[in-house]
Amino acid sequence: MAEGIKTPLKFDGLNFPIWNVKMTVILQSLGSRVAKAVTKPFSVPIGDDDTWSDIANKKFDANAKAHYAFLQVLNDDDIVRVIYCKSAYKIWTHIVVTHEGTSQVKRAKN
Fold it and tell me: Of 12, 51, 82, 105, whose CB is crowded by the most CB atoms within 10 A?
């Protein structure tokens, strides 16, 4: 995780609004691209990773960092819900829908 953070905050399913703010700050501390990875759909670029553009590589890396961060902080019940998600965006969307309801997804994207 970010430098200086020794223990990631585990999400226990309670106080989602507070956890949401803390998680947003953690993602921001990992870099602006990582924070943005949860706001836009992502798919793995086509072709061998040696042929990807610099931008595609950076997007892939940002998604991987955000994805990793989520798997470190989510409880087992939430991990089971998102285990097949290939992008941080899909994980974030699913967690928001699960814990705040569908009306909150639009706010989380903005």
Answer: 82
